[in-house]
Amino acid sequence: MCRKLIAQLMLILATLLLLSAPVFAEVVLKEKVDYYPVNGTGKKEIIKNLKKDSPYKKGKDYYPAFTQTDIRYKYSWAQKNGRCQVTQVKVFLTLTYVYPRLARAQSNSVQQWWEKKIARFVIHENIHGDISKRSAYELDRKLRGMKDINCSNAKSVISARAKYIVRQMKKEQAEYDRITNHGIEQHKYRPPR
Question: For residue 2, how many other CB atoms are within 10 A of its CB?
């Protein structure tokens, strides 16, 4: 009964995801999860080691979980009546979610505390992934819409448009982290409609 319900929910979710993507968009999405080990026994020691072992640090700040976004694109363009237009676009988006993983078995209470902490990390990082996905589809849509371009500088115009979209994505990621204080105040985030 439970397996059947889960299978039905997964089918519904997959259908909704397919229907929500633009029909002609060609975004190749690859998502993966990596872990790094965190040693310690008990909350205090784990937190100390989490700060020490986190692979992503900026100055004195550390980020126990993070999302790496790699967005690339390729396109074709054609000349018609002395003007150029983009004819094909393919966007490649690779998202790598990086989380800590306990290296040792813990007491039940510490394990429950850890699972809640990880669940909050996952919620926060998934939204970083969503921001990147929206930007990838926007990149696809904007590049496909480029028509009537001066052929003498078509490559630089297309490149500038793509760079602008990637810069906007980075700004949106930074603003999301600012609003949520890197997930500590996740409840403050209101996703775009």
Answer: 6
* Three-state SS sequence of the chain: CHHHHHHHHHHHHHHHHHHHCCCCCCEEEEEEEEEEEECCCCHHHHHHHHHHHCCCEECCEECCCEEEEEEEEEEEEEEECCEEEEEEEEEEEEEEEEEEEECCCCCHHHHHHHHHHHHHHHHHHHHHHHHHHHHHHHHHHHHHCCCCEEHHHHHHHHHHHHHHHHHHHHHHHHHHHHHHCCCCCHHHCCCCC
Q: Express each pLDDT in 169-185 by its tens digit.
A: 999 999 999 999 999 89
What phi and psi values does residue 149 have, to the nearest 5 degrees? -100, 145
Q: Residue 7 corresponds to which tokens in the numbers above?
A: 């299978």
Q: Does the global pTM surpass 0.70? A: yes
Strand 149-150 relative to strand 66-80: parallel, antiparallel, unpaired? unpaired
